[in-house]
Amino acid sequence: MKKFILNNISRLPIFINKLLLKLNRSPSLIYGQEYANFFKSLQEEEEYDNEKDLINLINRSIDDVPYYSKYQKISTIKDFESQFDFIDKDVVSRNFDILKSKTMNEDDYEIVTTGGTGGNPLKLLVPRNRYIVELSVMHDMWSRVEFRHHTRAVIRNRKLEESQEYIINPITKEVIFDGFRLNSNYFQKIYDIIKFFNIQYIHAYPSTAYEFSRFIYDNKLDISFVKAFLSGSENVYKYQKEFITKKLGVLFYNWYGHSEKLVLGGYCSYSDNYHIEPRYGYFELIDREGNPINTPGRVGEIVGTTLNNYGMPLIRYKTDDYAEYVGNYCEKCGRRVTLIKNIEGRRNGNKIYGADGSTVTTTALNFHDDLYMALAGLQYIQNEKGVLDVLIIKNNYFTENHEKRLKDHFKSKFSLGTRVNIKYVDKLIKKPNGKFVELLSTVK
Ligand SMILES: [Zn+2]
Predict the structure, then answer these.
(1) Ligand 1 centroid vs 144 CA: distance in angstroms?
(2) How much distance in Å is there from the Cα of 46 to the middle of ligand 1?
(3) DSSP assignment of 216-248
(4) What is the largest CA-CA distance in the chain?
C-alpha cells in the first residue's frame, strides 16, 4: 500500500512534488512522536553513559535467551568483559533459534537478512520500531553539518525503471536517483534536478560522491548551493575526501555503520575522527587476544552489542571491521565519546598476493596525493597469485610521467616476478549491490 502511494506520488507533476517537499517540515508527523522525543533527547544531552543500559540488556538476555543462559548475571563492565565470549556471523547463523528471546512479542519483531550479496546473507530478528533509534541517531549525526530534515538527493543502491530519471519520496524527503547508471549523461541529469529542487544534501557512497564531484569539477558547474555530501557504507580514501572538500569546496560528512547495526559513529563538525554514538549500541575495540584496546594508535577489531534489540540480542558481535583507537574525548567539539579513525572493512579482504606468496595490503599501496590528483579512479583486481590488474581512470592532468611513476611505485611494492598490469578504463567495477570496493580478489 505504502509503495503504491509512493509510486503514484512520484508520478505527480514536478511542481506539486516540489511543493510537497517544501510543506513537509515536521519530522514528528513523518516518523511519529516517539521518534520526535528520542531525537530531542539526543539533541539535548551531550553525554550519555550506556553502561546501565548494557547491564540491563545482558541480565535480561541471560534470563530470556537460551544461548546466553550459561552466563552469570553481571553488575559491572568488568564482569561483562571477563565473562562474555565473542560471537560472529557463523555463530549467529548456526544458533538463530536459540538466540531468540523466549518472552518477546513476535508481532514486535521481523526477520531481515543482511549482507545480501557476496557471501552468505545473515538472518536476523530485529524490532519493527528500530527506525526510531536508527533514524534519530543518524539525523542527529547529520546535524553536525547543519542538516535539519532537509530534502536529500539519494544516489545509492536503488535501480530505477529505464523510463524513470528519478523518483521522489516527499514523506522521507528524498529525491532518489539510479545508483547503477553513473555516467556523464546521467550525472548531468542529476545535477540539473538537484539544482531545480535546490537540494543542499547529497546522500551517496563515498565513491559515488567522488565520481560525481569530478564530473561537477571537470564541467565547471556551480555547486555552491550544495552544503554537504552525506556518505557512508564504504571505505573512504584520502584522495576522495581531499578532492571533494578542497577542490570542490563541499563538506564531506562520513559515518561508519555495519549491516548488523550495533555500532554507529561519524565525524563531528570539526574533526574527521569517528565519534561512536553511545545511544545506538555498545562499542568495543579488541586486539587479537580479545583484550580491550584503549591506547591511542593501536588498531583492533570493532565489536558491537545491541542496546535495543531484546528479541534477538547480539552480544559482543565481531564485525570484521578494523579501526585505530584515538581516544575517549574530542577536544574540538567537547564530547566525551569513543573516537576512532582509519576504519577498514576487511570482509572482502585487502591483501594482494605477490609471486612468492607474500602479501601487501591495499593500504600499503597508497601513493602521493599529487599522483591521485591525476586519476579519476583506481581499482585492483586479482584472480591469480602474482598477477595484479590495476584499473585506472585517467583525468586531464594525466601525463606519461604519471604512468612511469605508477609503474615504478608498484614495482617497488611487490616481490620479484609479480606481474602488475596497468589498464586504462572508463569505468570501475561495482559489486552487484552498487558498492565500490578497492580490491576485487578471488585469491584465497
Ligand atoms: Zn568532535
Answers:
(1) 9
(2) 11
(3) HHHTT---TT--EEEE-SS---HHHHHIIIIIS
(4) 68
Q: What's the CA gap between 267 and 144, in Å, rounded?
A: 8
> Could you tell me the CA-to-CA distances from 162 to 178, 181, 337 in Å, in that order?
9, 10, 45
pTM of the model: 0.85
Q: Please, are residues 359 and 367 in contact by the beta-carbon 8 Å criterion?
A: no
Q: How far apart are CA 185 and CA 269, in angstroms?
A: 34
Of 76, 68, 52, residue with least CA distance to 101: 68
CATH code of the domain in which 381 resides: 3.30.300.30
Ligand 1 center to residue 135 CA distance, Å? 20
How much distance in Å is there from the Cα of 329 to the middle of ligand 1? 8
Provide block-wise average pLDDT over 10 residues at a time, the chain (444 residues): 59 77 74 89 85 96 98 96 95 95 95 66 91 93 94 91 89 90 92 95 94 94 97 86 94 94 96 96 96 96 97 96 96 95 76 86 76 85 93 88 90 88 90 84 85
Distance between Cα 306 and ligand 1 center (Å): 23
Of 246, 305, 231, 228, nearest to 51 by C-alpha is 305
Find the distance separating the first CA and the last CA of the chain, reported in whole Å: 46
- Pairing label, strands 359-361, 351-353: antiparallel
Beta strands 359-361 and 375-384 are: unpaired
Domain span holding position 432: 351-441
- Residue 81 is assigned to a structural domain of this protein: no
Within a domain: 417: yes
Query: Ligand 1 centre from 160 Cα, in Å?
Result: 38
Cell numbers for 108 = 514486535
Which residues have CB under 8 Å from 40's CB, separation 6+? none
What total number of domains does the chain contain?
A: 1
**Has residue 212 been placed in a domain?**
no
Q: What does 37-84 look like in DSSP terms, one character per residue?
A: HHHHHHHH-S----HHHHHHHHHHHHHH-GGGTTSPP-SSHHHHHHHP
Residue 88 lies inside a defined structural domain of this protein: no
